[in-house]
Amino acid sequence: MPNRPVLDFWYEFASTYSCLSALRIEDLAEAAGVAVRWRPFLLGPIFAAQGWATSPFNLYPNKGRYMWRDTARRAARSGFAIVRPETFPQNSLVAARLALAGREAGWLPAFSKALFRAQFCEGRNIAEEAVLNAALREAGADPAAAFPASRSEEVKGRLKAETELAKSLGIFGAPTFVTGDGELFWGDDRLEEALAWARDGR
């Protein structure tokens, strides 16, 4: 579909709600006639600027307990199960760099979905090279090329720039969806509304 409106999908690999959106956004966007631009970034620097050393879901136990139950309910509605990994939140730095290394090659979305499934459907650690390798291969990428690219100064700078851009847009959590006219929607439960706004401008 030519000249489709674009929705920017800002996500953090350590985010449960980002996982929910990543695993359903493509079908919904296709049905809405909207193109999705996948934009991985890091929430850590944004949280640190607010004085948080970890996820608010860890800082506030009641909020954390609710989040795990809520994501389990939402995942079940989409036909899959959420597994709580042993470590939460996980270190997502290398994952985000790898994803951005694959942006031009076209495997960023497939890699992102594979990594989210490994983490939150299988309970695996996305900081482990074996898990990253498996996700790359599932996405059709060559780990022998992807890892060196992810360590380049260009990709490191790209991730820093993306995170700074997210901050400048007022993004404070993930997932966040930003429409072409700058409207911001936060949370997996706002995905459908964001797609409708991207399509209709309201």
Automatic annotation (TrEMBL):
It catalyses: 2-hydroxychromene-2-carboxylate = (3E)-4-(2-hydroxyphenyl)-2-oxobut-3-enoate. Keywords: Isomerase. Residues 7-193 form the DSBA-like thioredoxin domain. It is an enzyme of class 5 (isomerase). Its EC number is 5.99.1.4. InterPro entries: DSBA-like_thioredoxin_dom, GST_Kappa/NadH, HCCAis_GSTk, NahD-like, Thioredoxin-like_sf. SUPFAM superfamilies: Thioredoxin-like. Coiled coil: none annotated. Gene3D superfamilies: Glutaredoxin. It holds the Pfam family DSBA. GO terms for molecular function: isomerase activity. It comes from the Bacteria. Belongs to the GST superfamily. NadH family. This is 2-hydroxychromene-2-carboxylate isomerase. It comes from Bosea vestrisii. The lineage of its organism: Bacteria, Pseudomonadati, Pseudomonadota, Alphaproteobacteria, Hyphomicrobiales.
